[in-house]
Design the sequence.
């Protein structure tokens, strides 16, 4: 059976950036990634790349920012009052935290700069603007 939209798959994978940094792997999670193809559970470029594969197939591919987490949007870098952070928070550039939106949704954010009364935060996904490289092995296909 070949992978098509709607089937469930199990995939072993390693994701790297162009500089070789591993940003995620199924080994880190202790099990293969399992999802339904076309359901929106993985980035579009990953979904598209596995279509047509068979169980046991291995593949390497790259996903552009547009097919992954989008381009880096400078409008999502904002200055916020320092007092919104807990008093005991150890703020430093590069600190990752979850920002709460008015909708109740939480998104990853990163401190980029600290000034006397304000903190600059980047609300872009940490992988926005980056090309993602994957090495995968399709271990199982099950019908939906």
Sequence:
């Amino acid at each position: 059976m070949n992978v098509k939209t709607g089937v469930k798959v199990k995939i072993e994978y390693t994701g790297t950036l162009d500089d070789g940094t591993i940003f995620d792997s199924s080994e880190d999670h202790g099990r293969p990634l399992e999802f339904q193809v076309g359901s929106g559970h993985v980035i579009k470029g990953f979904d598209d790349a596995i279509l047509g594969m068979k169980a046991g197939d291995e593949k390497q591919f790259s996903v552009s920012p547009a097919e992954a987490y989008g381009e880096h949007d400078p409008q999502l870098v904002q200055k916020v009052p320092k007092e919104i952070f807990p008093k005991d928070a150890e703020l430093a550039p590069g600190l990752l935290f979850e920002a709460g939106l008015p909708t109740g949704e939480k998104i990853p954010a990163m401190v980029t700069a600290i000034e006397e009364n304000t903190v600059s935060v980047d609300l872009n996904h940490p992988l926005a603007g980056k090309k993602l490289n994957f090495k995968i092995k399709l271990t199982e296909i099950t019908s939906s």
Observations:
- The mean pLDDT is 92.
- The longest helix spans residues 44-50.
- Residues 74-122 form a domain with the Thrombin, subunit H fold (CATH 2.40.10.330).
- The chain has two domains: 8-69+127-142, 74-122.
